[in-house]
Amino acid sequence: MHKRLRLLSSLALLVFLFPGLAVAATETLATVTLENGAKVRLNDDFTWEYVILETLPATTSETSTLAATAVTSIALNTTSTINMASTSGSKATQAASQTMTASAMSQAELLKSTAKAGVKVTFANSEWDDDGRLGLTFDLASTSSEHYVMVEMDITFYDDSGRKLKTETIKVWKAIFRSPDTYLRKGEQRQSRTFWIEGINASQWTKQLMSLKIGEMNSRM
């Protein structure tokens, strides 16, 4: 697997040195299957992408096709999600649904952490309250010289069959105003508060399938 990763890094460096090779943003340079079965795409913007979702065809009354791929980008300093779709035909009677690939489900633990700009967030614990709400806690660690006061993150939930349920956006870290001791700093490890999520059926979430993506980040000197 390490040889594959070194190959991807070399290809990305080639694009960085010779930008003329990159025609458009996030254009695919290569797709590689790692030894663990996970598929990785290398883009021309120096990012990695784990292919984790596929969209099942919609049921239609006429011949139609709907193909889409959702990928989670995991790079040195960025995580992003990209969707690409093409459609033809009409009169769909049942909406297409996004489902995790078999490879993604077998490597689901990889999706429970995300990193951006030197900050890494990892799923730590889950619990249920008496109202049927799902409680989630996360661990944070920073190698950045920035002092982060806010880190936003998207959590996408999937049921036990891999079907996408919904996405929730949370502020996984929020410092207290003018309280430097609560900033997320280099070398520090902190745990988030518990976030309570509604609308997840406990009986359909026994595998705890989710993917994480860091969004907006605010810092202070």
List the helices and strands and how they pair.
Elements: H1 2-17, E1 28-33, E2 39-43, E3 48-55, E4 59-60, E5 65-74, E6 79-88, E7 92-94, E8 98-100, H2 102-106, E9 113-116, E10 119-128, E11 134-142, E12 147-158, E13 164-174, E14 189-191, E15 195-197, E16 209-220
Antiparallel strand pairs: 1-2, 2-3, 3-5, 3-8, 4-7, 5-6, 9-10, 10-11, 11-14, 11-15, 12-13, 12-16
Keywords:
six-stranded antiparallel β-sheet, 221 residues, five-stranded antiparallel β-sheet
Helix fraction? Answer: under 10%
Number of strands: 16
The overall pLDDT average reads: 78
- Listing every helix as H and every strand as E from the N terminus to the C terminus, the arrangement reads HEEEEEEEEHEEEEEEEE
Shape: globular
Q: How far is it from the N-terminal to the C-terminal residue, by CA? A: 39 Å
Question: Mind telling me the C-alpha Rg?
Answer: 19 Å
- The percentage of residues in β strands lies in over 45%
Number of continuous helical runs: 2
Which stretches of 5+ consecutive residues score pLDDT under 50?
11-25, 63-71, 73-77, 79-88
Structural class: mainly beta
Major sheet summary line:
6 strands, antiparallel
